[in-house]
Design goal:
By secondary structure, the protein is of the alpha+beta class. Helices cover about 15% and strands about 45% of the residues. The chain has a 3-stranded antiparallel beta sheet with strand order 2-1-3, covered by helices on one side.
Length: about 80
C-alpha cells in the first residue's frame, strides 16, 4: 500500500452583531471559487432579511468581520510491513 493524502477545505466566517457580540461559523467544503464579493453579498442579504440573530434580544446581524479559507492536507502513512 501507499501513503494516503486527504485534503479538507473549510471557510471560517466571523460575524458581528449590532450589540457588539461576535460569532464564528465554519462551513465545510466551500466552493473553490468563492470570493470576498460573494461573502459580502451574503452578508448584505443576511442583514436585509435578518437571517442571523445574536443571543441578545434585538441583536441583528451587522456584517462579516473576517473570512478565512483554510486548506489542510493530512498524510496517512502506510504502516504495512514490507517482506
Amino acid at each position: 500500500m501507499a501513503d494516503i493524502v486527504k485534503t479538507t477545505n473549510t471557510l471560517s466566517l466571523e460575524q458581528e452583531f449590532t450589540d457588539g457580540d461576535t460569532r464564528t461559523i465554519t462551513l465545510d467544503n466551500p466552493k473553490a471559487s468563492i470570493t470576498a464579493a460573494d461573502i459580502n453579498a451574503v452578508g448584505t442579504y443576511n442583514q436585509a432579511n435578518q437571517v442571523l440573530v445574536g443571543d441578545k434580544t434585538g441583536a441583528a446581524f451587522l456584517r462579516f468581520k473576517k473570512a478565512v479559507k483554510i486548506v489542510k492536507s493530512t498524510t496517512y502513512l502506510d504502516l504495512t510491513p514490507t517482506t
